[in-house]
Amino acid sequence: MKIKLYLISFFLFMFLLAGDSFAYPKFAAYTGEKCQSCHINPTGGGIRNTYGLKYSKDNLYMKPFEKAQKTMEMNPMITKGLQIGADMRMIFINDETGEGSPNFNTFFQMQADLYVNAQINKYLNLVLNPGLYIPNTFGSSPLATKSEIYGMVSGLPAEFYIKAGRFIPNWGTKIPEHRAYNRQLNDFYTPYAADAGIEMGIAPSFFTLTASLTNGSSPNKDGMRVNSFDFDNQKQFTTSADFRWAAKKNKYTFGLGGSFLTNPFKWDAVNNVNALRQAVVGFLSIGIMERVAILGEYTYNRLQLRDSISTKREFNTMFAELNIRVTKGMEFKVQFESADPSLGFKNSTNERKRYSFGLMFFPMTGLEIEGIYRIVEEGKGDSPTPFKIKNNEYQATFKFYY
Fold this sequence. Notes:
The structure is a single chain. This protein has about 400 residues and is mostly beta strands. It has a single domain, classed as Porin (Beta Barrel), CATH 2.40.160. Helices cover about 5% and strands about 50% of the residues. The protein contains 4 helices and 18 strands. It has a 16-stranded antiparallel barrel with strand order 2-3-4-5-6-7-8-9-10-11-12-13-14-15-16-18. The radius of gyration is 21 Å and the shape is globular. Mean pLDDT is about 80; it is low at about 1-20 and about 135-145.
């Protein structure tokens, strides 16, 4: 079948310039729908299903482009049972102040994912997302790509599913920004990083429960990942539960959930030093009149090294976001983030906070342009010798999706 997609390039002046991709939980807050309503993956993210494409075509475009929108045809089916999709995201970052460091100004290819879903029959799917390895860039290594390749059985009573292969374990709120503190600092991209194992879940009515068993990550004592997964005999267990309620006609929605993981592993295999990573997260979402979406998340993370002198490293992250639909195809966004990688240490110089303000434009289905200005604070200023750095920045993101 022919695939026709007409993209119109244009330039928008933006004084507020953000972000990155994974999934859009704000859409679930707006509508009261579950993430699996729009995605093949029951836990959200990745290739979109028919409803997800229809939602974007009906809601994500600006009025001036309505005529062009009606001529747009988005048909992801290559043949019966074989579907493709894609996400491409390029970001421009400018670090304004950079106190104590040089100005940072660059274009960066943040994401390039090609999705393929083969629906073998009513219940069996094979999902491929090889990701893109981008050489000579920060974090560009096989560890940085989040390739997912898994088989899945779904469509059973109570929305039961089971998948096996390499996938991103279901955890917390799947926000769209890779650089957000609650994604970047909690075990450095894990549990957001893909890992091999099995996962199953049920989603009867408004309730969802998932559990997975995977290899787990292998960070060193500083939290940096040294392999894409660990090589010991112990496994990571991750579980997540949430419920979502929507009032009649979706005028008001409310979601509440939590996730937990435990990952025992060998930190130093030569000297037989064991370690234990555990984390717990609570999250919520609120939607009002399909125009306001509020997201919140708190994560507590602990790494314990069990050597001759047992040491423990604790830290937390907080995330809050407010989205307001100003008009069709344009949204205003406010974010607050904080991270304290050194809980228990007073006046830690590692503590950081970030306040973000910006606009998101959806000119037409298949194209997003987002801008954010960020006020960034690192360190604390209430110690006897104050240490505080401000690294304000702005970002512009261009995303093409299918």
